[in-house]
Amino acid sequence: xxxxxxxxxxxxxxxxxxxxxxxxxxxxxxxxxxxxxxxxxxxxxxxxxxxxxxxxxxxxxxxxxxxxxxxxxxxxxxxxxxxxxxxxxxxxxxxxxxxxxxxxxxxxxxxxxxxxxxxxxxxxxxxxxxxxxxxxxxxxxxxxxxxxxxxxxxxxxxxxxxxxxxxxxxxxxxxxxxxxxxxxxxxxxxxxxxxxxxxxxxx
Length: 203
Fold this sequence. Notes:
Blueprint: H1 17-28, H2 35-43, H3 45-58, E1 69-70, H4 71-78, H5 82-92, E2 98-102, E3 105-108, H6 124-130, H7 133-140, H8 142-147, H9 152-157, H10 161-166, H11 169-186, H12 188-202
Antiparallel strand pairs: 1-3, 2-3
Helix pairs in contact: 3-5, 3-6, 4-5, 6-11, 11-12
């Protein structure tokens, strides 16, 4: 598979000189992933973004807050194919969102819990907003944005972002809520103070 690149013998004569240099650099680097494997992770990072979007869109985390659940039960609750959902959850497990318990059961981790819709500073709406069609299609045109005078967003949708959002109230709502959630991730001290104030006001 592609992941076997990290254990591959790149010393063959068919290797280019640049690749050979990269491998030598990887061997001389501190213990860890070889450089080609690190680059592979960067290249395929969008796979993870799309899978996070899928579980956020389906509301999977909300159905796991009381403990581990069989995939078949989760799939029935969110309207997904059990076998395909199982593959997505298993693929996200190495990223720390879920833990596979065996017998087709998965549990939510603390990191995965940030995708719940009922927790303070939930990241669910941010996951939905960042990988929604209008953002995703704009990123597809990034090369044009670098080489052409127009911005990718305007090239794809024919208007500026806030003009588009005001014309799509459902997406504007998710955008506004996502901005609130990201403030908790980017400003943890402020977020912690806000949570403390909330507890004091409710006591």
